[in-house]
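Quick one: structure tokens for this chain, please?
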Amino acid sequence: MTTQSKIWPLEQAAELVRDGDVLAIGGLSLNCAPMAFCRELARAGRRDLDLVAVVSGMAVDWLIAAGCLRRLIMGLTSFEGFGLAPSFRMAAQTGSVEIEEWSEHTLICALQAASAGVPFMPTRAGLGTDMPALHPERTWEAVDERSGERYLACAAIKPDVAVIHVHEADALGNARMNPKLVWFDTELVKAARKVVVTAERIVDTASFRAAPERTSIPSFAVDHVIEAPRGAWPTACWPEYPYDGDFYRAYQRAARDPSSFAELFAEHVAPIQEQTQR
């Protein structure tokens, strides 16, 4: 096993993603999104990204508001009880970002195909829906030659970079959630060419060796580790801190007025460039 440190500074996080990359981000809705990493992408002015986000919200909205995205490949984008994600809604309505909508299950199938090294993953979910018509290059109906059963084929989606947030990681790349809740993150990790873990804190490797059953992501699956205390804010990193409801409400209020939104966004994320002004 390698003993080389995989620690990478947060201030240089954007260097791990190139313009035009397929980026996948973890978390689940209001929970444990890699927000600090997304903030660095916004500050660096990354452009033309294809973003894979199975169930997300604020992270997607930040990257759209900052002008980082060309395409969003998603299952769901929402602020849940706090309403619609305003920059996402505007992008969907105006067509400024290409929206590729999947069901959660079929998008996971596409990631599983990439991790298995096969061109597609079959599933019975999605049969009889508009999915093949929405993106025929990604999904199509097929028939099994032996059984005659119909299924939906989900073409592999292989992210260039996947980023997830965890409670703890060590310098070798071992990572864990406390408790061991990994959402869809393991599917992203297995599918991606490069994996980045942001962590609330870096701990000694001895703590992983003392309780190996608690490891959520093993070191061999991780390329870079970034220490990012409160790196999921304003989403939750339960049980350490909840989502910040006050911020969600303030964000929604500001979104009603472009100048108010630009002021809030500059304070908490990054200045909005003129060409990406909402």
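The CA atoms of residues 35 and 232 lie 5 Å apart.
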